[in-house]
Amino acid sequence: MIAEEKAKGYIARRVAKEFEDGDVVNLGIGIPTLVANYIPSGIQIFLHTENGLLGMGPNPSAGYEHPNLRNAGSSSVSFLPGSAIFDSAVSFGLIRGGHLDATVLGALEVDEKGLLANWMVPGKMIPGMGGAMDLVTGARRVIVAMTHVNKNGSPKIVKSCMLPLTSIRKVDLIVTEYAVFKVSETGLVLTEYSEESSVEEIKGLTAAHFEIDPQLKVIER
Amino acid sequence: MIAEEKAKGYIARRVAKEFEDGDVVNLGIGIPTLVANYIPSGIQIFLHTENGLLGMGPNPSAGYEHPNLRNAGSSSVSFLPGSAIFDSAVSFGLIRGGHLDATVLGALEVDEKGLLANWMVPGKMIPGMGGAMDLVTGARRVIVAMTHVNKNGSPKIVKSCMLPLTSIRKVDLIVTEYAVFKVSETGLVLTEYSEESSVEEIKGLTAAHFEIDPQLKVIER
Amino acid sequence: MKKKMVSLQEFSEKIPSGATLLIGGFLGDGTPDLLIDEILKTDKGDFTVIANDTAFPNQGIGKLITQKRVKKAIVSHIGTNPDTQKQMIEGSLVVELVPQGTLAERIRAGGFGLGGILTPTGLGTIVENGKSKIQIGGREYLIESAIKADFALLKAKKADWYGNLTFAYTARNFNTFMAFAGDCTIAEIDELVPIGGLNPEDVVVPHAVVHFLVRRSRS
Amino acid sequence: MKKKMVSLQEFSEKIPSGATLLIGGFLGDGTPDLLIDEILKTDKGDFTVIANDTAFPNQGIGKLITQKRVKKAIVSHIGTNPDTQKQMIEGSLVVELVPQGTLAERIRAGGFGLGGILTPTGLGTIVENGKSKIQIGGREYLIESAIKADFALLKAKKADWYGNLTFAYTARNFNTFMAFAGDCTIAEIDELVPIGGLNPEDVVVPHAVVHFLVRRSRS
């Protein structure tokens, strides 16, 4: 069992290797936000935030915040040189129009077809979909970054989502602290596993069928 | 018979009395453009041009033109203080969304229901509708400014348009050198006539039925 | 010229109980706080609020929620406001959740005189319940209707006397297109500039859609 | 970072005969003349051009018409170009006329990932021939489909190396939303500024939709 804080770092670090130089990327709240801290040197990505900014930089030092320069989680952020400001209609035009190279999102459930549920638990937690439905529907690549199991230890990768779907568009990649799955035409394929685990252990933590990639390897950290 | 140049001036001068202070107005090409020269003192209107400017001012003096500050007829124009620039989508958002108080347009035909045809003569002249269909559909008031008869002396106000319609939205007012008609629920109503003409003469120049307003008066010039 | 600048009190007299209100802002950033506070000085309520979110308890749009002035909220997200969730579960507040990009386009469509838009977002999810679908070019889309409201309440940075508006950084968000979709659009501004004091290319919302301006009274 | 700045020749090598081209401009204002001239140095043709208009004979987009490189034009107006009218009557050029506001929204919809829009414009006219209609909220609308193209050719005023764009006055017109609707978007620019040389609030088209930049070679 990898401790939660460590797990988050592992996940973010692995996701950060997915980008090409120049990619425009939207990072969701939670683990996805951490991805920005692990971008490999030599790779420059442009962070998009759905409230209307491309080119978002890190949180400014205390005392240097501006009340009207925020990310979609309401945190103060900064401009990197070459940033652009726009309204929410343009921001979602970028998203829905396929102009984002990737989005990284958390999940409540992902199923063995690659379908994602991440916006509500009926009768319990209804935060609303916010921008998630547009992001999953429109981004060129959708990467799920999440812990392998939930707080009760139950698998989050399931046979079929029981929770309401975010989109009928399948995700492209699932990254957890134990495993990396790509989503193929026929379903999930395990391509990488962590040195702390094994294929058998991952099978035990996963409630969905998955294939194993012939080039299966250990996650580089 | 009023000579053409004089007629144009009469028409423009009469149309110019239709505006309230602060109105946002789009003037079409031809006689409508002349309207700007006759706005009564004390009345300020804001000219909108569909290629992306609100607050358009007169043509600049020779030598002071800017190649990228033009009206929809491709003439050089100027900014009045308080102008705004926008793209064509926003420009037609203003038009279609009902944010223009009035548009003044020329016509090939207007019929006795108040329907307008002004964008093509099948097999002969097909300039295209440009912005006319959006303007007639979306502006709060549509004012037709045209000579009463065409170059062959035939009436342009007809029983039913033979030419393709610009919109199924009826115009609100028709101003010619001889007459002013308002368009009511039931059809055309002659409200004013020129001192050079008479109701009988106007009937002879008009191929549509019209009512006569009980407050019929002579056009003030 | 009819003056567009009104006092906070003149503003609040225009807003009746039961009105539909488009309110700008994203988690409070770009929300007209002065206007909301002024409404809260009255006993008006039963509003339908259309906005990106309901912000936080007793902050921004959240003030209208916490003080129970809202009967219906059409928003994309309520996760930051437990008061909204509580009132929704109690049944005193109806919440209609709309994907954020769809909400933006529906409001823009209303203001731009369009009947609606065709979007792939929400297809095959519970968002499509009760909606029509259409095939275009071999792809399927949801038909989403336009949204308009009695009032649009905006927060802008600068305005000239005519009502041309600019915004501060990410405070632009929903304010720009909401301006077009209010039968009466009222902007709370931080700074008034003279007519001609804005570069025409810097104007984000042209004055034709802005009916009234309000600024903090300098007392 | 992959460089977006290319030479005129590198640009023209990207454009094959038969391509669909969105071209910015309004009667020549905001049209990328350098790009058009470069295409005309080749023998490429059979283009489908989507633009507001065809400008004037042998000017702007009109050059492509006069030199018979266009097989189809989807435009709102051809009244200023007798060559277009002549070729249309002869049957060598297909002209599809679209109301200007509808054309703008259809292109924007394509670039914004929407399937189309619902508009009242054109209802009851010959524009509605062959199109579906829909009732929403007691009003009728035409269903107008989105437009995309292989290339969007723009004229911008300034760009930074990333491809953030600004425009000169009324040269904005169709350029802004066409930028989103090209599978490959190429902007001819007047001035290159350093990265960080544009105020983020002044950027009209964000670099995410701009693939290549071209400027007049300084020889």
Could you please describe the fold and organization of this structure?
The complex is a heterotetramer, with two copies of chain A (221 residues) and two copies of chain C (219 residues). Chain A has 221 residues and is α/β, with parallel strands linked by helices. Chain A has a domain at 4-106 and 115-147 and 162-178: Glutaconate Coenzyme A-transferase (3-Layer(aba) Sandwich). In chain A, 18% of the residues lie in helices and 27% in strands. Chain A is built from five helices and 13 strands. Chain A has helices at 4-15, 31-34, 88-96, 132-138, 199-205; strands at residues 24-27, 46-49, 53-57, 78-85, 102-105, 109-111, 116-117, 142-145, 157-158, 173-175, 179-184, 187-193, 211-218. In chain A, β10 and β11 form a beta hairpin. Chain C is 22% helix and 29% strand. Chain C has helices at residues 8-14, 33-40, 61-66, 82-90, 100-111, 175-181, and strands spanning 20-23, 47-50, 70-75, 94-97, 116-119, 133-136, 139-145, 149-160, 165-166, 182-193, 212-215. In chain C, strands 1, 2, 3, 4, 8, 9, 10 and 11 form an eight-stranded mixed β-sheet that branches. Chain C has a three-stranded antiparallel β-sheet with strand order 5-7-6. In chain C, α3 (61-66) links the parallel β2 (47-50) and β3 (70-75). Chain C is built from six helices and eleven strands. In chain C, α5 (100-111) packs across α6 (175-181). Chain C is of the alpha/beta class and 219 residues long. Chain C has a single domain, classed as Glutaconate Coenzyme A-transferase. Chain C is globular, with a radius of gyration of 18 Å. Classes of the chains: A alpha/beta (221), C alpha/beta (219). The interface between A and C is large, with 38 and 44 residues.
